[in-house]
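Model the whole thing, not chain by chain.
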Amino acid sequence: MTTDLAHRRPDCDVLIIGGGVNGTGLARDLSLRGLRVILLERNDLAFGASGNSSGMIHGGPRYLTTHPSVTRSSCVDSGYIQTIAPHMIFRTPFVMPVYGHGPVARVRFDAFDAFFSLYDEYQPLKRGKPHTRLTPSETLTLVPGLRSDDLYGSVTFDEWGIYGNRLCVANAIDAVEHGCRLYVHTSVERIVVEEGRATGVTARDRIDGRAYEFSARAVVNCTGAWSPITAATAGVSEHVRVRPGKGVHLILDRPITDIGVMADAVDGRQIFIEPWGNTALIGTTDDDTYADLDDLPVTTDEVRYLVEGIEQVLPRVRDARIIGVTVGARPSLYAWGKMEDALSREHEVVDHAAHGAQGLFSLIGGKLASYRMFAQEAADLIAPKLGNHAPCTTHSAPLPGGDRPVDIDLLAARFELSRFAVERLVTRHGSRAETILADSGRRGRMVVCSHEPVLACEVRWAAKHEYARTLLDVARRTNLAMGACGGNDCALAGAVIAGEELGWSPGEVRAQAAELLRSRQRSRLPAIGDKQARAEAMTMAALRTLGRAALP
Amino acid sequence: MSAHEVTADVLVIGGGAAGVAAARAAHEAGATVAVVADGGGATSLGSGVVWGAARDPFGAWAAGDLWRVGGRYVTVAGWLLEGAAGALRSLLDVGALPLGGTPGVLDLATHPSWSARLVAQTLGARVVTAPDDAPTGQSFREVAVTLDPEGAAEAFARSLAPRCEGLSGLLLPPVLGLSRLDVAARMGAVLGIPVGEAAGSPGDPPGLRAMRALRRWLPEGVAVLNDRATVRPGRLPGLVFRSGRLVKTRSVVLATGGLVGGGLVFEETLREAAAGAPVWTRDRRRVLARAGAARGADPVEWFDEHTGRARGAGLRVDASGRVLDGDGETPLGEWLYAAGEVCNGRGGDGLADALADGARAGRSAAQSIGRRG
């Protein structure tokens, strides 16, 4: 195929492929520097690893002994992210219980103590508190219900969490507000390389089938685990090597602990449970995956592995229901002959000029916690090549909603809402929560999804201002249908409201609601236990009603 | 006979659609019948619409005010359903509205799935603004309960009257009564036009009313016990009740429901709750578990994600409704029958099939007593 892309005025300076945290972070960075950016995302913002991670923007003490540079950069960047998006950050202290008797347990305990003393040096970078050593009784006061027999003591350490979905959306929206053009559900079919130079892409809208051609002065592949596939369309996939590692998280119906708890899985890997809003999150598996990245499967075994591991320290995990399962593929850097855990979480910007494609770059690897730094490094490399020497400002310019604190009580009183509903809205939108509420009528302030809770006006906002095109997109932005009812109560209501903004017919409303329920239900399938099967069957009943074909 | 003792030829365990149909059929076949019910199951969580495209699930029973065959219904978000074999009368059959007129759709502030705009668009109807004092509530149930008290529905209808002039009918969200079955009729009488509901989702009032209507449909003389029974196959009479009650019976019909009703329970493995009977997978080839079986029942296998059905697995029964043993051929007991969602692989659909199943099992159970002498 020949195109005239090389001979016309480019549609943009930089075309970014991928709407995860790296793609949206880079789009924001370059847009703030004044470059014209187009961002294309094959599925939805935060569809992959970014929106399905534990959300910890920590240094990863896990990497301290093997990759201390990852720990340092993560801690530094975590500090910056706290500055620019204070509303979507939450503090999560962790307890690491140590079990056993006598000298063996003491050596183990002292080793953890020493380890976290080392980690303490990084803590000020991210406003973390130094670790503490706790006796068994202090530990049990902090985490009631922790297995107490054989408990030698515990070590605490301080971490921070963030909402990965919202982080991507905030970056994308800020980019758009600085001139970026954003296309979701638009898949790149080919990166056009002409005379040794990347000149643009051909793409297709996966919802309406529309074909696009975009010319660009530079093309950046930020597609995470997909990046070898993306690179293949330009013939450079052998230079973009990742080893996708599947990470599964379980969402419980309640925060069964106020403090994160570390545990050993059956194979000795470290896993954890952490409070997460009004739920709890258990993670994480790390297994090589060769499956379809658009539709990663989760198996019953993976779920049992996680629950069994947490049960060793927190037996009451069995009393909770698993109401959701998330899965993503980490873009770990490729290496042969290593266990998944030992793979590098470093990041790397690949300049494909040496591979016959000048102006084409790939961002590979990386972590949520250091996305901003990664984007800055890439922008520092790419922008000067395009004659732009503006400095990076993403470490100090607040993300949308992060500009000022919000008085939640005041907002709750003004709009006659529960404090909880406002608090959740502010967590997702920061100071923009006020605009969202002010734009809404009385019906707009009705609760659509009572578990989260999600208000009607937030659903409308996601459809109108946040580039949601399907109900699943809305759910990713708002947490709609992530609660214990699995969407039974809110899927149809959400579809009706989103449909008003997006012009859906009644048949389309039905289809969108059914798709959301089906998708949620499918994701929970491997996690069905005795607490969940009955609720699941009720969701099925809702699907049966929605599943009926509408009359034309 | 002590207060804790009941005698019945046929004991039906479960008071949902299958159980009620079984009880009625057994009664009509001349047996004395008792029903044990333990809370609401899938029947009460239906949308109130009975699915089943072509046929009347009741046969000769399709009488009275309960169901109307062959309706056309609109949902709260405005899409139309056709081929419902029947529905509770208060769900408005929009196909039966007077031709040539303009129906109204009431824009009530309630559960956000209600879209008067979409419904009106679909029906070519007019959106009717609700008066300021109209009942409101976050859920349809909340609104419905306000219309139950004596006179409440009439008063509400009178407040709507000035807004309904010239309309050929009035459509509301599914709020027309939580426990009373006649709210739609009472409002219609005041307004002089057909009044009815749009179909909603599981858990909405029409489904709850369907359950209530079904129970009323049980013949006089059928005892209903609020209790839970455990059956020991091979030992009859040997029913153990949670309350300590003893029932002397000669036939048992398990109409205990599926996962929603509690007839099937998933704890490590999927098992049948009342009798511990073998549970089969949907494809009818594999016995999943007997009571006490260890782990290994992967829900990915028996939850049917493609049809969205939770009843991919359950008891296997023969043509008369008798529960079969693990070999798939021998009845577990001459006297043990099953119907409804506790059975596996039923190709059918919701209430209509549960009723048909139940009628078959109830009739067989009653007739088998004669054969066994």
